[in-house]
Design brief:
about 425 residues; mainly beta; Immunoglobulin-like; five-stranded antiparallel sheet
């Protein structure tokens, strides 16, 4: 504090040596008009009127306000010093007086959240002394004061909602946020009027344009003072143009499966495709672009896909209800656990090759030894009665192995 007082005295003595500047000198302390409990407010201290410096002290009720800090706001050659709530400011070059009015510094405060509405809050810059280079002169105190306002309203309801060219259902009620209406083709937009229940709330009505043969949601958004919002919706259906011919286009411009590839590549007129999945994937995430935005697409059941082959049908329905079905064959791999040890298939034990049984060597069949038998003489054959003697002799000789002789004999006898 002694250092700050010495600095202030030195500044004032220096200012006293400057040439006289003809000015009245002025100071002010200002801040926001509306303050609520819990707000953070910033006050500005301004001074001017041909001055080269000044000093003063800030005072406030610490039970209501908490000082967040001071920040100098004047630039160029000027300096601002603080010691507690005391301040001094001066021109370092002693050549640039403030002839008009400039913000010297700003003070930021936090308003206690427990302050009741209607409470007066004030901050005072007291003992303000200015110097014009010839003399110091006091300008007294400058006070900022305001009354704590009521908390911001959170009321985001409507007091009324009317449609002049249509009947909404059900009848309006602030608590009811959804309504419907149907209008003829000749009604191109809704005429909506809405009023907020709280004067501090703001009402915003969205687009009221209607689509022939379609349904449009017209939104009415209410934003309360504290930022709370509430949206009322009017779902309006407009009849189709009686001369309108619905589209029969039921194709897709594109079809994709996230993270996987169709086989073959997609073509609008091609109806059958395949996709291959690992075991860990049991659902498909499709994205598609309709050729005609008036058509609709149904991706069928593409979740909980079984292991093996299954089919997913993607149905495109044209505006005129014509249907086209794209069929996707899905092949999901079977489960494989890499932690299981796989053993090579076991083969039956191999036995040493067995040699075919050896047969005893076959010897050529031996003919039973022929016994040399003495020829037995045939019993004497007596010639038959009236048989020629030569024939009997031939027969006898033939029996004894003399065939050739017999033949010769017979031949001779015939001659």
């Amino acid at each position: 504090m002694k250092k700050f007082s010495a600095l202030l005295l030195a500044v004032l003595l220096l200012l006293a040596t400057l040439p006289i500047a003809s000015a009245a000198g002025s100071a002010s302390l200002s801040g926001p008009e509306t303050v609520r409990a819990g707000d953070t407010i910033t006050l500005s201290f301004r001074a001017g009127g041909g001055i080269y410096g000044g000093s003063g002290s800030i005072s406030y009720d610490s039970s209501v306000l908490t000082l967040q800090g001071y920040s100098p706001s004047i630039g160029s050659t000027w300096a601002v010093e603080f010691s507690g709530n005391n301040f001094v400011f001066y021109d370092n070059s002693m050549q640039n007086p403030i002839t008009g009015s400039s913000t010297i510094f700003k003070a930021t405060f936090r308003v206690s959240s427990s302050v009741a509405p209607g409470t007066t809050v004030s901050v005072t810059a007291s003992g303000v002394t200015l110097s014009d280079g010839n003399a110091d002169f006091g300008v007294g105190s400058r006070t900022y004061s305001t009354t704590i306002a009521e908390p911001l309203s959170s009321n985001a309801e409507l007091a009324s909602l009317t449609v002049s060219n249509a009947k909404i259902t059900p009848a309006f009620s602030p608590a009811t946020t959804f309504y419907t209406t149907s209008v003829p083709y000749t009604t191109a937009s809704l005429s909506v009027s809405a009023e907020a229940a709280h004067p501090g709330a703001k009402v915003t009505v969205g687009s009221t344009k209607l689509v022939p043969g379609g349904t449009v949601d017209v939104s009415v958004k209410v934003t309360a003072e504290d930022g709370t919002t509430k949206t009322y919706t009017i779902r309006a259906s407009r009849q189709q143009d009686p001369n309108y011919v619905p589209s029969n286009v039921n194709t897709l411009d594109s079809l994709e499966v996230k993270d996987f590839r169709l086989s073959p590549a997609f073509e609008s007129e091609r109806l059958y495709y395949a996709v291959y999945l690992p075991y860990e994937v049991d659902l498909l995430d499709f994205s598609a672009q309709l050729t005609d935005p008036k058509a609709s697409v149904d991706f069928g059941n593409a979740s909980a896909l079984p292991v093996g082959e299954s089919q997913v049908e993607i149905t495109v329905t044209a505006e005129n209800k014509d249907v086209r079905v794209y069929t996707l064959s899905v092949f999901r791999a079977d489960y494989f656990d890499p932690t299981l040890e796989t053993e090579p298939p076991t083969e039956p034990p191999t036995e040493p090759p067995t040699e075919p049984p050896t047969e005893p060597p076959t010897e050529p069949p031996t003919e039973p030894p022929t016994e040399v038998t003495e020829p037995t003489e045939p019993a004497p054959v007596e010639p038959e009665k009236d048989q020629p003697r030569w024939l009997w002799i031939a027969t006898l000789v033939a029996g004894l192995g003399g065939g050739s002789a017999v033949t010769a004999l017979v031949t001779k006898k015939k001659k």
